[in-house]
């Protein structure tokens, strides 16, 4: 029987250990990196619309700040756990490190289904969460952003609450804000755009032609939909998409723009005109050139990795592939662009937003996209070269580059 663990913390620790062992760094490096440096667990009382008080559980995990202030999103989801938040904060450290941002990693979460709250309740919860963690965040300390279940509006409420606490305007405390309130152009599309860029680079390395490529996308929220729109812009053909409600297929191609309109109207990709229904599992094992994973963790495991027929997997989601599945995919010759690189576009443009807020700049969308492309393509090339040199997969090479940066920063700071 498989002993595969689906606990994201255990998975993150395995990924770090593997890279530390290949790098040959002291045991103390792994000991430091295998857990966050600080975790805050909070209880948030919220007055509901009927006058009752409901108490929500929340977390903020700050993994490592050797390279700079910590950075990472806030997730509102009923399945949030402390281990998940810890793992996500660890992945943030290595995501920032791999593309060379001056940040460490953090992540926050509240155990809640935001869809079950009214707008007013959601606002009170968002403000309550920020009051609970205000003492450990700040533009020079820890800078939150949106993640699953949160959005630009929620970030605006949170910054407003933080401003009341500190007594001045501090837009750089949180990124992913609305454009009118210090947000950056290009931020909403950044993660999906980056996923498409990384798929393009992988296609080049495999000597394939992007124009002939077929694509399947799991998850059509912020990341999946913008990946779809950018992939279409780059010339690829999307033939299958799924979300939590089900999937759709059309071998002649699915128009991403029209599908976004359909999802905005109906809330799901299902029943999109001209498509036939498919299951989530059928999509994951479909014969396509590129499989974009843009939903949640643990989608490709030892149970289905052998059935994957895609040539390239591009991980828009965090942690969608388990280490056991990684091994199987590597043996099958599937080219995996790992999450810490593939979905780094979000934190890169968050970094641009922070820089613009601190300096009172306002960059154009073109400037943002060009800077993002340069950072991500450079990171892809360094990882690819290292992977070839050490004969390891792209994920291990990405961790090696990132852990080396964090290690060197810890060393010069006298931590080791
Ligand atoms: P989202 O909530 O906007 O979209 C999630 C999508 O996945 C939805 O279409 C949902 O229906 C679908 N989904 C959920 N469970 C599913 C399941 N079991 N099977 C199939 N589809 C399912 O979230 P998002 O912001 O697009 O984030 C998606 C992933 O990308 C998460 O892992 C997140 O941590 C990661 N990520 C997001 C960003 C960002 O900027 N939004 C940045 C980096 C990483």
Describe the 3D structure.
About 45% of the residues lie in helices and about 20% in strands. α1 (about 10-25) packs across α14 (about 395-410), α4 (about 120-135) crosses α5 (about 150-165) and α6 (about 185-205) packs across α12. It has two domains: about 35-175, Rossmann fold (3-Layer(aba) Sandwich), CATH 3.40.50.10860; about 190-340, NAD(P)-binding Rossmann-like Domain (Rossmann fold). With about 425 residues, the chain is of the alpha/beta class. Strands 9-8-7-6-10-11-12 form a seven-stranded mixed β-sheet, with helices on both faces. The longest helix is centred in the C-terminal third of the chain and has 26 residues, at about 365-390. The protein binds nicotinamide-adenine-dinucleotide. The site of nicotinamide-adenine-dinucleotide (NAD) has 22 residues, from α7 and β7. This is Glutamate dehydrogenase. Keywords: NAD, Nucleotide-binding, Oxidoreductase. It comes from Caldanaerobacter subterraneus. Pfam families: ELFV_dehydrog, ELFV_dehydrog_N. GO terms for molecular function: glutamate dehydrogenase (NAD+) activity; nucleotide binding.
Strands, helices and their partners?
Layout: H1 8-23, H2 27-33, E1 38-47, E2 53-64, E3 70-77, H3 82-99, E4 104-111, H4 119-133, E5 142-146, H5 152-166, H6 187-205, E6 214-218, H7 222-234, E7 237-243, E8 246-249, H8 256-266, E9 276-278, H9 280-284, E10 290-293, E11 312-315, H10 323-332, E12 335-337, H11 339-342, H12 345-359, H13 365-390, H14 394-412
Parallel strand pairs: 3-4, 3-5, 6-7, 6-10, 10-11, 11-12
Antiparallel strand pairs: 1-2, 2-4, 7-8, 8-9
Residues 147-148, 191, 218-224, 242-244, 280, 294-296, 316-318, 343, 346 line the site of nicotinamide-adenine-dinucleotide (NAD).
